[in-house]
Amino acid sequence: MCVPGCQQAVQHALSRRGFFTGAATAAFAATAVAPEPAQAQTRQFGRAVDLTHTMSPDFPTFLGEPGIAMEKRFDLKRDGYNLHWWRLNEHAGTHLDPPIHFSEAGMTADMIPADMLVVPLAVVDVVAKAAANPDYQLSRDDVVAWEGRHGRLPANCCVAMHAGWGQRASDPARFTGRDAAGVLHFPGFSGEATDWLLKERRVAGLAVDTMSLDHGPSKDFKTHVLWLSAGRWGLESVANLDQVPAVGATLVVGLAKVKGATGGPVRLFALV
Question: Which of 119, 244, 248, 266 is the most buried (most CB within 10 A)?
Answer without folding.
Answer: 266
